[in-house]
Each structure stands twice: as structure tokens, then as C-alpha cells.
Write a structure and sequence with these properties.
Layout (H helix, E strand, L loop, with lengths): L22 E8 L18 H5 L7 H17 L3 E6 L8 H6 L2 H10 L3 E3 L8 H11 L4 E2 L3 E2 L13 E6 L2 E9 L3 H4 L7 E2 L2 H14 L5 E6 L2 H10 L5 E3 L19 E4 L5 E5 L7 E9 L5 E6 L2 E2 L8 H19 L1 E5 L7 H4 L5 H14 L4 E7 L10 E4 H7 L6 E7 H12 L10 E4 L1 E5 L9 E8 L2 E4 L5 E7 H4 L6 H6 L1 E4 L5 H10 L13 E3 L1
Parallel strand pairs: 1-2, 2-3, 3-4, 7-9, 9-10, 10-12, 17-24, 21-26
Antiparallel strand pairs: 1-13, 5-8, 6-7, 11-12, 13-14, 13-15, 16-18, 17-20, 19-24, 19-25, 21-22, 22-23
Length: about 525
């Protein structure tokens, strides 16, 4: 099928004849909600009562539900077609996930009326069994087009490669893909097979086209950068709605690109790519107009900020409050004070030294120093929020460190430490979560250098002085059990680490204890331990 070339991506008509187009499809979408069932504050942590009273909160399931209901009713009243989609990572990120392990997500997504969800990597944080809670519970399709689950005794037959949804009288094909490094970033187990994302998407498109479906949307969890590549590689896609990289698109400050971002596809037509940040702070609203032959002729929209001006659905808010009661006491316990906000910005902690990285790595090293440990390494992707100035609650710490990782220790050669740091910098351009935050170490990273040759000037402390690391020497290392077992590409820890012990205390408790002994409060800082060329 010959597709027309779109020449812009805003509310203006993109080609002549748009006024005669017979199909308008509205896509309302979320991604990377990460268990933010309750409203969040400006640091992406759970909002407290004082912030709620000051109208400083965003998102939460009650706002998402209310806004989707409002828009869906308005669109249908005007004769439009609407789909509600989620691009993965509903799981992991707050005490709601720690407490309910996905049952809360099932309840709220069913109540909101989502039409489809693609699997995110963190849906596997409790193994295939964790995803099965979602797949068994929701009443809409769960997709992952490049994931072969046929050999899984808990997921076989439950995850679809693609689906055809009804939007009014139109048939809309939804294809999907999951990040291929999920075995390194989560715990999918050994029974699942990850296939090439581009090849799998292309195969799904061909199947749908053979069935006569001429409007096809990719719902992906691969990241904005990869979405832009897929738009150029996979024929037949009319749009991509994505997640995984927490990318803000639109005309607001801090956006990484236009919403939607237009990419010339392999057939000459431009493909709109959309994403809506993370944590339920925004609701994406993508409007696509097709002509009678199924050609996309217009793409427009903006993410909608779900701030305090957006009312909460009262019934959903009441249910959220009810479910929050069992965890309120733990969350509200004040364990420390901080003199200033502790910055845990995602982009910062995945590309350079950050305050939260220093805090967590310092706490790990402090806890294990008497065991002969002199180096601590924490993956930047394991740091999920900032902490506001003032009282620090246990709930805030769990928002920063939600994965229930335990403190792990082992011994590794200096050469192995350098190899680990190289892994941390190997996906620097993608702001990957493997970037190494450290204590007891200094190093320089050159993002422009070839992968495997990005790390230099690695120094360790010896006799109160900084000295070059000895590649032949053996060092005591502290990390989290996820990384110690090879997570985030740290295979060297699993293969070469000696005398490993993975069953230390919860990392959140380690940090809480480290902060708590500072009765005058903690002062966040950076000290140049990571230099970026």
C-alpha cells in the first residue's frame, strides 16, 4: 500500500484533503507509572498531606481515572474513536507494589478501562509469576510481540504478540515490543525467549495487513531512542506509543523533543512517536487522522499535566486511601533529616555523579567497612526518586530504593572493578541504568570513546590517600544483590566475584540507618568522584 508523506506534526493539516478524512483516532496513553498509585510530589515521590493541602501534587490513579473518563466521554460525544493504552512498567516503585505485588494495578487498570498494555521490564521484577498476576487479572490484552512465552508454565498463552481492537467501526491493529536487555535489567527467568524487536514488529504488521487491517499502532517498551530507530526500520507502522526511557515530549520546559516526534519511515510516510514521561504525572493524548484508504494524514496532540487542577475521581481516591492504610505507619515514620534536597534525578544519576548516588554508595560502604570492604558500586537505575529537604520518612526512602534489594559483598580484582565500570558506561548515550555510582573509588568516563575504553584514572583510597587501582590486587566490594548476580550487565560480579554474600539487610534499611545516626541532619553533596570528559 502506498502511504502519503506527512510534512509536519502539529494541529495544522499536514496534507491537502485532511478535511475529507473519515477516521479520527484518539489515543490516551500512560507509561512507566511505576506503582505511583497515590499522587506524587515534584520529586516524583509519594505526596504527603501538607503538599496535598498546598495543591502541590500530581498524578495518582484517581486523577488518571478522572481525566480518562472525562476525555473518553467528550470524544465519544463528538463521534470520535478512542483507545486507552499503557506502554509498560506499571510495576515497582512504591510501597503499594511492595505490599500488593500487582493486585492493586489489576484493580485500578480494570476500573479505568484500559484497552491494552504492553509488558515492561519491571513487570518481571518478581519473575514470570509476578507478570502472571497482571496477565491473569486484567480484562484487556497484555502484549509483548518479541517475547516467546510458550515454554513458560505460568505465562504460556497469556501474552499476545498483537491484537486487533475495535474503535467505533474501525479495526486498529496493536503490535508490541519489549526491551531486549530485560534479562539484564529484571528477572524474567530462563524459560522465556527474547526475539529481535524490529523483526518481531515487522512480522506482526505483516500478519495484520494480511487480515485486512490498515491502521497499525506500535505499543512499545524499548525507550524513545529505540522507538525513533524502529520508526525508520519497520514498514507499515502508523504511529509508535512508547515507554521505558521516561521521556517527556511536548512544548513544555525540559522536553526532549516534539510531541509527537515525526520520523520518516521506510515507506516514505512520516511516523509519529509519542511518550508521556512517567509516574502518572502526564496523560498522553495523541490524535491521529486517517483517510479512506487508511493512510495517516495528520498527527497532533500534547501530554496533559495531571496537576492539582485536575480533580480526582472520588471513588478511586477513596479506594486508594483504603489500600494505603496498612502501609501508612511504615511510610510516615520519620527516620532522619536532610539539610537540603537530595537529588536523585534520573538523567543525572545515569550519566554523572549525583547526590543520591553518593548517599547510597556511602551508606553501603559505611555498613560493610568493618568486613574489609573498601569499594561500593550502585547502579544509577536503582535510584528512583529524589528526597525533599527536611524530615525524611521511610516511605521516601522506599520510593528511592523500591526494589527490596539486599546488601551484597564479595571480592574482586582491580581489573574486574575496571571492567565493571566499563559496563556501567557502555550504554552512556542511552542513559542506561547500569551507570555506576561509587564510594571508595574515583574514575573518569569519556562518553565519546569506544565502548570498552571509556574508563580511565581509576583511583582507590589507601592510607588516607588516593592511589591508582592495582589491577592485580583483590578488593572488597559492596553492591546490591541484583547487580552481584549479574543484573544490569554486571556479569563480572557473578562470574569473577569471590566469597559472595547476597543476603544482607534491605538496602533501604541500610540507607535509613546511615541517615538516622546524623542527629543534626544529613547534608547532600558531590565531591568529584566521577569526572566526565
Amino acid at each position: 500500500m502506498t502511504r502519503r508523506l506527512l510534512v509536519a506534526a502539529s494541529a495544522i493539516a499536514l496534507v491537502a484533503g485532511t478535511a475529507q478524512a473519515d477516521t479520527v483516532l484518539h489515543i490516551l496513553h500512560t507509561n512507566d507509572v511505576h506503582s505511583r498509585i497515590e499522587p506524587i510530589n515534584s520529586s516524583d515521590s509519594t505526596c504527603n498531606a501538607e503538599q496535598e493541602a498546598a495543591d502541590e501534587c500530581f498524578g495518582g490513579m484517581a486523577r488518571i481515572a478522572a481525566k480518562i473518563d472525562q476525555l473518553r466521554e467528550e470524544i465519544k460525544a463528538e463521534g470520535g474513536n478512542v483507545l486507552v493504552l499503557d506502554a509498560g512498567d506499571q510495576y515497582q516503585g512504591s510501597l503499594f507494589y511492595t505490599t500488593y505485588k500487582g493486585k492493586d494495578v489489576v484493580e485500578f487498570m480494570n476500573g479505568i478501562g484500559y484497552d491494552a498494555l504492553t509488558v515492561g521490564n519491571h513487570e518481571f521484577d518478581d519473575g514470570p509469576e509476578g507478570l502472571a498476576v497482571l496477565a491473569d487479572g486484567v480484562v484487556f490484552p497484555v502484549l509483548s510481540g518479541n517475547l516467546d512465552v510458550s515454554r513458560s508454565n505460568v505465562l504460556a498463552g497469556k501474552i499476545l504478540k498483537h491484537v486487533v481492537l475495535d474503535a467505533g467501526d474501525q479495526k486498529i491493529g496493536i503490535v508490541s515490543a519489549l526491551a531486549m536487555d530485560t534479562p539484564e535489567t529484571s528477572s524474567p527467568g530462563t524459560s522465556l525467549v527474547f526475539q529481535d524487536d524490529a523483526e518481531s514488529l515487522a512480522a506482526s504488521v505483516e500478519e495484520l495487513q494480511a487480515e485486512g487491517v490498515n491502521k497499525i499502532i506500535a505499543l512499545t517498551h524499548v525507550g524513545y531512542g529505540r522507538d525513533l530507530q524502529l520508526a525508520t526500520e519497520v514498514p507499515g507502522l502508523d504511529a509508535i506509543v512508547g515507554g521505558h526511557s521516561h521521556t517527556l515530549l511536548g512544548d513544555m520546559d525540559g522536553a526532549s523533543g516534539a510531541y509527537p516526534t515525526m520520523v520518516e519511515g521506510p515507506e516514505g510516510a512520516e511516523v509519529p512517536v509519542a511518550q508521556a514521561y512517567a509516574y502518572g504525572k502526564y496523560l498522553g493524548h495523541l490524535k491521529l487522522t486517517f483517510d479512506d484508504e487508511g493512510n495517516l494524514v495528520q498527527a497532533e496532540g500534547q501530554p496533559i499535566l495531571l496537576d492539582s487542577s485536575v480533580p480526582q475521581d472520588e471513588a478511586v481516591a477513596a479506594r486508594v486511601g483504603e489500600m494505603a492504610e496498612p502501609i501508612a505507619a511504615l511510610r510516615e515514620e520519620v527516620v532522619a533529616k536532610t539539610a537540603n534536597p537530595i537529588g536523585g534525578d534520573r538523567a543525572a544519576c545515569r550519566t554523572r555523579e549525583c547526590e543520591m548516588g553518593n548517599l547510597v554508595a556511602d551508606a553501603m560502604l559505611d555498613r560493610t567497612a568493618e568486613q574489609g570492604v573498601t569499594i561500593a558500586i550502585q547502579n544509577g537505575g536503582g535510584l528512583r526518586a529524589s528526597i525533599d529537604e527536611g524530615d525524611v520518612t521511610m516511605g521516601e526512602i522506599y520510593s528511592v530504593l523500591p526494589f527490596q534489594n539486599t546488601l551484597a559483598t564479595f571480592q574482586l580484582t582491580g581489573a574486574g572493578v575496571i571492567e565493571a565500570l566499563e559496563n556501567g558506561a557502555s550504554q552512556y548515550e542511552e542513559e542506561a541504568g547500569r551507570f555506576a555510582q561509587v564510594a571508595g573509588l574515583k574514575y573518569t568516563v569519556d562518553p565519546a570513546a569506544d565502548v570498552g575504553s571509556r574508563i580511565s584514572n581509576v583511583m582507590v583510597e589507601k592510607d588516607d590517600a588516593w592511589v591508582p587501582i592495582d589491577e592485580e590486587a583483590t578488593y572488597g566490594v559492596a553492591t546490591n544483590n541484583y547487580m552481584r548476580n549479574g543484573g544490569d550487565g554486571y556479569a563480572i560480579f557473578a562470574s569473577e566475584g569471590q566469597n559472595a554474600y547476597d543476603f544482607g539487610p534491605d538496602l533501604a534499611e541500610v540507607v535509613a540507618d546511615y541517615l538516622g545516626v546524623r542527629q543534626d541532619g544529613y547534608t547532600p553533596y558531590t565531591d568529584g568522584r566521577i569526572a566526565v570528559k
